Amino acid sequence: xxxxxxxxxxxxxxxxxxxxxxxxxxxxxxxxxxxxxxxxxxxxxxxxxxxxxxxxxxxxxxxxxxxxxxxxxxxxxxxxxxxxxxxxxxxxxxxxxxxxxxxxxxxxxxxxxxxxxxxxxxxxxxxxxxxxxxxxxxxxxxxxxxxxxxxxxxxxxxxxxxxxxxxxxxxxxxxxxxxxxxxxxxxxxxxxxxxxxxxxxxxxx
Length: 205
Prior knowledge:
The protein is of the alpha/beta class. The protein is built from 8 helices and 7 strands. It has helices at about 20-30, 55-70, 80, 85-95, 110-115, 120-125, 145-150, 185-190, and strands spanning about 5-15, 35-40, 75, 100-110, 130-135, 155, 170-175.
């Protein structure tokens, strides 16, 4: 790991499975927010999702590595290694362990809508800047939801996105992007999840 300060986007989730929509968002975030890297934080088990129908952690890691295909997108098993289940805890540990780096949390508009269901969701907003990306069919409707209203005065415009990763939280923005049609649900429903073998190397940080 480079010991100098980096600007890192964090994209968390089950990745069940990872798909090109994740990659599309990550590459857009790299450019818009002027990030050095994006880390895909593959969750051992999302607390808000049932374990039934969830592929093994090893399969989800391997699939994510196959899909990422970019030198600045890193697939990480760090949540399993540091033993966190909730995003607020993960962010607290990452910002302590890697205090030389600047982190920004990346999420789709659907997650902003359900954010108040997350454990200590206000802690998330107040630990790192948050970048929310347009996602069909949610779009601007999420700007009237609870989380957006709670932090409305800390809202950043799209034109200021390049500075967001260095902002003092709370700071968040909603960013328009070309929508990608894929979701993990759609991939699974089409039977297009060619799960790889049950082995996946850990990413060394």
